[in-house]
Design brief:
By secondary structure, this protein is mostly helical. The chain has a single domain, classed as Hypothetical Protein Ta1238, Chain: A. About 55% of the residues lie in helices and about 5% in strands. The chain contains five helices and four strands. The strands form two sheets. A two-stranded antiparallel sheet has the order 1-2. A two-stranded antiparallel ribbon has the order 3-4. Helix 1 runs antiparallel to helix 2 and helix 4 packs antiparallel against helix 5. The protein is elongated, with a radius of gyration of 18 Å.
Length: about 190
């Protein structure tokens, strides 16, 4: 369990931070940017939860927990050295991806097929879920970019890819099952 007795440490005052394996890197490193954007995604989920109830809120709470798992995964490079760590290393696993897929499928069965692109909006919950979607897409792009130069757990990238799809379908669900979606009208303001 994590114990935080002191919030500020002054160890980052020179523009560096510690990764999960203790290595010090620049705060603007690609890895820190990737897991920082995962943290930003988590904050947007917190905003969405202000408007969620019941099962939707429970699913969003599970996603928030997963996003902390994902941040822990991304902040620790060198997956091949996991066995050498003095504690079990937390990594994303395919069952977390499978859970998102099952939830997407369950929500999607109640939705009418799309006949147009939709604009982010409608209900407050839907609007926030679209914000979650776009921030999670950015986290995915950054994680994929990181994977071109450093080791990244493939399950972490898969999770982010499914997560943005989950947010899209959940946003439609929050818009009266898609009936209150705001449809894009191409060229409407020409």
């Amino acid at each position: 369990m994590v114990v935080l007795n002191k919030i500020y440490t002054r160890t980052g005052d020179a523009g560096e931070t510690a990764l999960g394996n203790g290595d010090r890197v620049a705060k603007h490193s690609m890895r820190v940017t990737a897991y920082g954007t995962v943290d930003e995604t988590n904050a947007t989920v917190g905003l969405a939860r202000l408007h969620a109830e019941g099962e939707m809120d429970a699913r969003l709470a599970a996603i928030q927990n997963d996003l902390f798992d994902l941040g822990a995964d991304l902040c620790r490079p060198d997956m091949e050295k996991d066995a050498e760590a003095p504690y079990p290393v937390l990594r994303m696993v395919d069952s977390q991806v499978a859970r998102l897929e099952a939830e997407i499928d369950a929500m999607n069965t109640a939705l009418n097929p799309l006949r147009s692109f939709i604009l982010p909006g409608g209900s407050p919950l839907s609007a926030y879920l679209h914000l979650c979607r776009t921030v999670s897409r950015r986290a995915e792009r950054l994680s994929v970019e990181l994977s071109t130069v450093e080791s990244v757990n493939p399950a972490a990238v898969k999770y982010l890819n499914r997560l943005s799809d989950w947010f899209f379908v959940a946003a439609r669900t929050a818009n009266g099952g898609g009936t209150d979606d705001v449809l894009w009208v191409p060229g409407a303001n020409r």
